[in-house]
Amino acid sequence: MTAGDPGPVDDRDDLTPAWLTAALRAGGHEVTVTAADAEPIGHGQIGANYRLALELNGGGGGAMPSRLVAKLGAGADRSIVSGGYRKEVAFYLDIAATVAVRTPRCWYGAISADGTVFTLLLEDLAPAETGDQLAGCGPAAAEAAVANLAGLHGPRWDDATLWSHPELDPVDEDGAALLGEIYASAVTTFVGRYEAELDSGQVTLLHHVAEAITPWIARVDRFAVGHGDYRLDNLLFGPDGAVSAVDWQTLSVVPPGRDLAYFCGNSLEPEVRRTCEDRLVTTWRDGLATHGVQLDEADAIAEYRLGVLQGPLITVLGAVYATAERSEQADAMFLTMLRRGLVAVDDLDPFSLL
User: Fold this and answer.
1) 328-342 tens-digit pLDDT
2) Are 34 and 67 in contact (CB under 8 A)?
3) Cβ neighbourhood burial of 195 (10 Å; 0-12, 13-18, 19+)
């Protein structure tokens, strides 16, 4: 933390004009905030978001927008999600400028030493609207989202320097085995929680996925910056059709097909996905090519098929370890994602490629 940096805050009431002024000046923006109002937005599971209406004064304020979005931590026990907080702050401060994905501009970011308290002051992308995870999306919206995803993957495709970032360390064999154990335990918890909503075929397939997770995690043929949770609830769709990605707490260096398959499998109803997934893979390949990445069709399809296990992995872990209070809305979201994701796994058969 540099001199004059006020550090992160942990409550809506802490977003005072004095704190905002110090934070923005620490970020290099010579502006004075004379008044601020914060209104909650969204329903984040492990983070809280507020729209800030600012009154500004002083030199240099012309470039500063009068509306920002503040993102803070949420929940009582955050030790299990502190790594995600670190990743999100690292993305905005270190990675965003090196890739071509659309994402909000970050005006300030800070995190506590233990990783449990963080604050980001981000560009407000309104009137762009968040996608609807429960409703899903159609082919046109999916194509725009996939094109944006290529902008994340392409610029640092197979860039070995990514492994040296402290928040992007690779998962070794021991780490893959540990994640496999954590996921298997989470599947047991998930099945117990939602037993009435799951049929026997879904339960069997979930356990099959759990058996495959360790070798799947350990397999890294190609790698790039990965979002990890690239789905409609984490995407903003502008009136011009432009798509921006938010919520970078699952940032990682991974086989990039995981992001692609996760989006298609979780954000489109199966009948919609089946009609357009070949085109979406082609859109991704074409976008990668604009960044100098030449991936042939067979390899792209294999990346996509292998990546589909990301769906049940993230859905189950998200449901079991979310720090926010359980709700009907969250349950419906997780169950919808799981249903779509398991159909995609069944359709694409990643197991035969492992």
Assistant:
1) 988 999 999 999 999
2) no
3) exposed
- Assigned token pair, 97: 């400028």
Give which of 345, 152, 352, 199 is closest to 264, Cα–Cα.
345
Separation in Å, CA 311 to CA 43, 45, 228, 342, 351? 20, 17, 10, 8, 14
Q: Which two tokens stand for residue 313?
A: 């992995």
- Tokens representing 342 are 């398991």
User: 312: part of which helix (H) or strand (E)?
Assistant: helix 310-321
| Alpha-carbon span 109 to 114, nearest angstrom | 15
Closest CA to 250 of 110, 42, 80, 85: 85
| Tokens representing residue 67 in the block | 């509306």
* Cα 269 to Cα 347: distance, rounded to the nearest angstrom: 13
Collapse the DSSP code of 85 into the 3-class scheme (helix H, G, I; strand E, B; otherwise coil) and give the result. helix
How would DSSP label each residue in 16-69? -HHHHHHHHHHTT---EEEEEEEEEES--SSEEEEEEEEEEESTTGGGS-SEEE
Instruction: Write the CB contacts of 29 (distance below 8 Å, at least 6 apart in sequence).
Output: 60, 63, 64, 107, 108
Residues 6+ apart with CB under 8 A from 177: 214
Six-digit token pair at 297? 């069709």
Helices (H) and strands (E) in the chain, counts: 10, 10
245-286 pLDDT per residue, tens: 999 999 999 999 999 999 999 999 999 999 999 999 999 999
Q: How far apart are CA 326 and CA 261, in angstroms?
A: 27
pLDDT in tens, 47-106: 789 999 999 986 544 588 999 999 999 877 788 889 999 999 999 999 999 999 999 999
Q: State the Cα angle at 94 between 90 and 97, rounded to 5°.
A: 130
